[in-house]
Known about the structure:
- This protein is of the alpha/beta class.
- It is about 35% helix and about 30% strand.
- It has an eight-stranded mixed sheet, with helices on both faces.
- β3 (about 60-70), α3 (about 70-75) and β4 form a beta-alpha-beta unit.
- α1 (about 20-30) packs across α2 (about 50-55).
- The protein is globular, with a radius of gyration of 18 Å.
- The protein starts with a strand and ends with a strand.
- Bound molecules: S-adenosylmethionine (SAM).
- S-adenosylmethionine binds near residues 91, 111, 113 and 198.
Amino acid sequence: MSNAIGEFSRYAHQYDNYNVIQVEVAKILVKQLASSEYKTLIDIGCGSGEVYKNVVKQDILFEHFIALDSSREMLGIHPSDQKITKICADFNSPQTFEKITLEQNSLLLSSSALQWSTNLEYTLFEISKKVSSVHFAIFTSNTFKTLHKTAQISSPIYSVEVLKDNIGKYYEATFRLKEYKLYFQTTKEMFNYIKKSGVSGGKQQLTYKQIKQLMKSYPFDYLEFEVLFVEARC
Ligand SMILES: C[S@@+](CC[C@H](N)C(=O)[O-])C[C@H]1O[C@@H](n2cnc3c(N)ncnc32)[C@H](O)[C@@H]1O
């Protein structure tokens, strides 16, 4: 099992979008693919198509691409093509996987989305019945680590240990852990990013007063992210 830890930094002001890290993660995920030819690729939590765009950019051949997301708006902005089937469905719901049939040599991809699985063990179990080869990148609870600590709240997403345990129940996996730092010029910019980026989980909403307090006591001019890249077979 590989456990390489990589780290890199970015400056948020160099980008005009709120998904700088996700864009990078999708690029790395696709770069790590072992083959350059697949029959069917399925991307769950496909969003606006970062995975698909990288697949095309990196000349990876496929006959069929299934783009699955629970958001109609996201699917609306995902690229369209004769080879693409868009499915609006929730990967937390049992009916979603009942509807999908995949050939044996299909590959399931997922980038920056599975941290939203409400029951990861169940989602992985359902996935493992459909496809034996998966490659995904998932944010861990060390994302916004110091922010959560400063606000004295626990992360709404899974820790590396829990992720590895659950994945190990259904798959033989190789893991790569990567840390990211995203720097901001002002605290205000940083907190706007948190609100809009969609990586922190919206369950534990802080009040306006708590956010103001947090902005005063947060010690860094950067945000922390941690992503587990998983290559797995069952
Ligand atoms: C942070 S975005 C990542 C999008 C894309 N994979 C990328 O790399 O840019 C997470 C995506 O997961 C989708 N998502 C969240 N929960 C989901 C669920 N339960 N079922 C299906 N899609 C979900 C969201 O709608 C969103 O498009």
